[in-house]
């Protein structure tokens, strides 16, 4: 039997906590330097009240000790809590000074929480501070939520091969962290540490404090929301420090497996950072892709210096590969190779156990291992071959999980692209919007939704469909899709 | 140890046989009504001589009894023989009256043999009959080659889950056909029968005999080459019989599993046509997709009658779904939904064991079975669930094979699309050319390579890359890719 009480209790408590967090942007608005922005505080006051009352009420109504949470309740809780948080966090965006429709506010909140970073807002440069801060905070919450989910929830639910990380630190024989709560606290601590480090670095290199705070929140979470319509490009003026390189470092950190950081800190096992198979493959991927883009931009803009080409290449490669989605230039203008290239790499993503999005590096490694194993068995039918990942043997069950993940990924992406086309979006806009949503990247391609545009002009149905795609992508599809299976609700 | 002798022997014999076949278009040119076309006969005479001499020479040099062919030799033979046939069948196209470059001739021959149907030729309406007939014959040979390969080769090589068809008729306890040669003869007989039926139907309904012959050859093989620049649309004039519906029937027949036809004929088991899981799913797919397109064209062109909408919809759905690629209208003009829709369904393909291309219906069924199984096991971790296909249980090995196939499909498609973009093709042209090549469909999308255009203007490198994509797609990737694995050549 499904027990809804723990689902309601946890979801309600999370919504109430979200309400309390709304007090931060409320204060940001109250102390705004521009008189015109201060009125925006009331939107957060109302949002906070609604969230605390309704969330707290739901939690109180279902109060009691939670003995166990079954697998099925785990699935339900994951989807329900993410969705409830989006519904409530959209309130202050809808009723505030920016006067978004609820559809737009929901899109923006979903884009925030899922760390997608697609926006329907233009005129960010003149938006109230509370509004900007709330968007950044949503991405930051989403980022840490995903890190904890990748350790506490996805391996248990066997989502897309994540079971291979089940024993990674969490269940080691040494049991160096006793339980899930402590473990989550450790991960959150590391996350906070890197956020502060990013803020200090950006601020120290000359970014205004408020912008530095916001970009710290959205860089470590590979979210990509900015405080400027021109995104990070707005801060790159001549004579300034290379803030893009600072941000690149923190986008990479946000895309590394946080569980490894924890092992490093608890055990002092620094070597793990350089021996972990996923980290090595990720580093190699960045290197190869950056070189490819360097060659392309040097060919396209002959007069570039090598260092400038490197900066342009690595920033955009890391921004799109990790699914952050900041822009410094509009690579739509770099020609057809760049467009197709960036479209493809946005699906790749960073490491599992990080804030980053996309298919994740380890899944490509497992898929490649499956192919190599296949070729070996074929050439030598009587040989005995075993594929390994980080030293652990890979079973057929893991291969099926990982490869089904790719299949579902493409199926959902294609369905969303066809649906968006059916709403009248041109082919490039439809395909890139679908891709950027499920991969939680942010910008699309083309004049309308590319790095230089935004999603404001899309029809409402497209915004709802994209929001659904973002949630599916962020929760790695199966977590949500299994709720639509009749078998789930039976028995 | 790899033994190259049988590979050389069979490949040489096939090339020699191809040379003999070139005598047919040679005679077609010799009896051409237009004086100007008769000179084209010499191209085929030269091509025939070269093929018979070199192919026959290779076969003679490696003559001897073939005791066994190992798995690895099977892989090598498959790739080598397809490639050799393309190399030689391109000769008369290159040196004939149409004056194609060898790159163009190779592209056209590869497009023919792989039943892709992309063309670099415009001015088909005035081309020599031998030239047109040879193109059609190449597709026809390719079609029957694929049917035989799907039974005799792919299941043994365990390509992309094809092992589930290993016991389907071929190895039944009844052993109603004693050996592979007889079995191949049976399949070829059915193929010839349907080709003749298609010719009679088209001719009887008013298509000129030569055009009817060519379209019979390219419809049953789901190849899609036509004798007119306007493709099948050229034969659809007011007051004429609905030749498009006749062709639709034979494209569907060409996409059904020929092994089932053989069972039907040998055992009189007519019911199998209606109980076979793959055929049922394929029929349902056609039905649903046709209805979707009917709704779209009725919305787009309000004044259409229901029957006209049905004809437009079912012809184009079947043509693209089965990977035939004939056109009656330019669906590029139907708006963004049609473009995205046709782009997606071109990857689907028909049934395994047919002449059709794409990913094949059974792979989608197996992938769906894997997902349903996953959901069930999740909801009831202690339950015992088994997925079945046509009554046979599906193992994890089959799931891995099928799902890796999808993964490789997308990886090769994306790589080819990025490569074509790097050659300067615009995004839509690059993506659709890559897709149409690996899925062996034929037409791309957009002004350049869409149903109304052709591939003549693409750079040479793009033509070679697309030709490679066609061969990979036709041989179901793994057959070729395994040759690039170091393990294959070891030991
Ligand atoms: K993002
Ligand atoms: K075709």
TrEMBL record, chains A, B:
Pfam family membership, one: TrkH
Name assigned to this protein: Trk system potassium uptake protein
TM region(s), chain numbering: 7-28, 43-63, 75-95, 137-157, 183-205, 245-269, 281-314, 334-354, 361-379, 399-423, 471-489
First-listed, main subcellular location of the protein, grouped into a coarse class: membrane
Similarity comment text for this entry: Belongs to the TrkH potassium transport family.
Lineage: Bacteria, Pseudomonadati, Pseudomonadota, Alphaproteobacteria, Parvularculales
Subcellular location: Cell inner membrane; Cell membrane
PANTHER family: TRK SYSTEM POTASSIUM UPTAKE PROTEIN, TRK SYSTEM POTASSIUM UPTAKE PROTEIN TRKG-RELATED
Bilayer topology term: Multi-pass membrane protein
Species for this entry: Hyphococcus aureus
UniProt entry keywords in alphabetical sequence: Cell inner membrane, Cell membrane, Ion transport, Membrane, Potassium, Potassium transport, Transmembrane, Transmembrane helix, Transport
Function in brief: Low-affinity potassium transport system. Interacts with Trk system potassium uptake protein TrkA.
Source taxon at top rank: Bacteria
């Amino acid at each position: 039997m499904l027990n809804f009480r723990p689902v309601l209790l946890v979801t309600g408590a999370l919504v109430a906590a979200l309400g309390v967090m709304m007090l931060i942007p409320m204060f940001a608005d109250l102390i705004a330097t521009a008189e015109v922005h201060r009125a925006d505080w009331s939107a957060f006051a109302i949002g906070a009240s609604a969230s605390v009352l309704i969330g707290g009420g739901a939690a109180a109504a279902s109060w009691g000790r939670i003995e166990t949470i079954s697998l099925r309740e785990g699935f339900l809780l994951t989807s329900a809590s993410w969705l409830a948080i989006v519904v409530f966090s959209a309130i202050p965006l809808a009723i505030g000074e920016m006067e978004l429709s609820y559809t737009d506010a929901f899109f923006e909140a979903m884009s925030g929480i899922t760390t997608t970073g697609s926006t329907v807002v233009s005129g960010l440069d003149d938006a109230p501070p509370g509004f900007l801060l709330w968007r950044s905070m949503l991405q930051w919450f989403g980022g840490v939520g995903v890190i904890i989910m990748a350790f506490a929830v996805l391996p248990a639910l066997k989502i897309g091969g994540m079971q291979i990380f089940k024993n990674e630190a969490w269940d080691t024989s040494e049991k160096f962290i006793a339980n899930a709560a402590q473990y989550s606290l450790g991960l959150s601590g590391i996350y906070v540490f890197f956020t502060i480090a990013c803020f200090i670095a950006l601020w120290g290199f000359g970014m205004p404090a408020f912008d530095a705070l916001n970009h710290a929140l959205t860089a470590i979470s590979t979210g990509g929301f900015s405080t400027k319509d021109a995104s990070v490009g707005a801060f790159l003026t001549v004579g300034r420090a290379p803030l893009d390189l600072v941000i690149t470092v923190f986008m990479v950190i946000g895309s590394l497996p946080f569980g490894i950081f924890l092992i490093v800190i608890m055990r002092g096992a620094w070597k793990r950072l350089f021996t972990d198979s996923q980290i090595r493959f990720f580093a190699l991927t960045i290197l190869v892709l950056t070189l490819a883009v360097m060659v392309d931009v040097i060919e396209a803009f002959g007069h570039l210096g090598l260092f400038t080409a490197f900066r342009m290449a690595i920033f955009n490669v890391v921004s799109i590969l990790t699914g952050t989605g900041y822009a410094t230039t509009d690579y739509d203008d770099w020609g057809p190779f760049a467009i197709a290239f960036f479209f493809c790499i946005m699906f790749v993503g960073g490491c599992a156990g990080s804030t980053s999005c996309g298919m994740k590096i380890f899944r490509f490694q497992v898929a490649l291992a499956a192919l190599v194993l296949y070729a070996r068995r074929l050439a030598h039918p009587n040989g005995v071959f075993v594929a390994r990942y980080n030293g652990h043997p890979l079973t057929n069950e893991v291969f099926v999980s990982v490869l089904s993940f790719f299949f579902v990924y493409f199926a959902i992406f294609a369905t969303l692209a066809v649906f968006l086309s059916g709403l009248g979006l041109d082919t490039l806009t439809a395909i890139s919007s679908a891709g950027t949503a499920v991969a939680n990247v942010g910008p699309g391609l083309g004049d309308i939704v590319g790095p230089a545009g935004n999603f404001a002009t899309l029809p409402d149905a497209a915004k709802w469909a994209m929001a659904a795609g973002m949630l599916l992508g962020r929760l790695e599809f199966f977590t949500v899709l299994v709720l639509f299976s009749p078998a789930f609700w039976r028995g």
